[in-house]
Design a protein that fits this description.
Blueprint lengths: L8 H14 L4 H20 L3 H22 L6 H21 L1
């Protein structure tokens, strides 16, 4: 029998997985993936607590910032935000594996 994941993990990990699967090479596909991920991660954070909650909030902020950069609403370094998103996604995986 598989161990239960901490609250919020299943939904949050699904959002991260979907983001990486749908974020293509074009600005438009990355914007769509970031928008969907932002919305999904906000929902996942409602069911999370502790370290999972902290990771979902960080990822929500990352996806939001990516949306603003990719839509041209703000200037910013997309690559730097993507690198932070990658680190925060790994933190989520680590927190969920530790549960």
């Amino acid at each position: 029998m598989a161990p239960l994941l901490p609250a919020g993990c299943e939904e949050a990990l699904a959002v991260v997985d979907r983001f990486y699967r749908t974020s293509g090479s074009t600005r438009q596909s990355r914007l769509a993936a970031a928008t969907t991920a932002y919305q999904g991660m906000m929902g996942a954070s409602l069911n999370a607590d502790g370290g999972v909650y902290q990771a979902t909030v960080a990822l929500s902020q990352d996806f939001s910032e990516l949306r603003f950069i990719l839509s041209g609403m703000v200037s910013g370094d997309h690559d730097a935000v993507q690198a932070r998103t990658d680190r925060d996604a790994q933190t989520l995986r680590d927190v969920c594996d530790a549960g």
